[in-house]
Please model this.
Amino acid sequence: MRTKIIAATCSLLSYLLAYLTSNQFLIPITFFFIHLVYGILKSHVNSRKLLNEVPNSLRILLASISGVLFYKKEFLSISLAFFFFLGAILLNDEYQRRAFDSLLKGRRGGSLVFLGIDGSGKTTHSIWSEEWLRGRGYFTRLEQFHKYIFVERLSRKKESGKTLTPKRGGNPFRPLASLIDNIIFLLATSFGSGLEGRVVIYDRFIWSTYIKYEALGYPVKPLRLFYMMFRPRYAVVLDVPVSRSIEVIKKRPEHIRYTEVILSKERQMYLEIARKFSYPVINTSREKKEVESDLESILSKFFPEVR
Model:
């Protein structure tokens, strides 16, 4: 809160001082260095890293620039002024520190997605990957991509344990509602993760929703472009024979039963995605340790150990 008040004050002072000098952009530079020196001295006294206050100094710089831009009184400059001022007020200094720390240490961020038909081990191996990445110095967050805000209200009855077969038609609003739900969920959980150096691990992805609807026979093809427009930074396709998938599903009493036809179509679409985007494919019908070994080899290329 204190930094927000200081930033707003610097913006106002920069606006007023702009009337007193012909070189207005010396004003934000001056405010930046004053705050930077103050931050270094403060960090030294409190035995912190000397550059601990750099993120807040950048916020002061943005606020001061906004004051000068407001002085210009032109449409473009005023628009930019609002942008810089909001950035100074809303930009979180802890987020900036994590971003700087990740940049200095080579810590990569972004979304890591596990794709595959039911029973291929997405949940098991996403949990393992989260622990493995944390051990390499990464900030991680595990999300299951089958959470909905309002789409379930379109369901008239519970389908757990029911065997579903391909059909033509279906509620045309359900795929649209799922798309909106998935986009909101994706943006809410992954926004800024790349800059922050945070890895968001997804058990399934927005593509999985589309693939399921198409395999079930819903009228979802007109929405394909919107479902497929989002692309994860990293992805791995976990592959198992359809017979193995059916065996695993049978052991889950609350799981929806899918026919061989549906699962075969889904598997084909996942493999096509892997070929299209050159994603690695791992056969997860083998021993768990063998699969983890393959995963470690693949993920090591994506996520180098943090220095």
Q: What stands out?
A: DSSP finds 13 helices and seven strands in the chain. The radius of gyration is 25 Å. Residues 26-45 form the longest helix (20 residues).
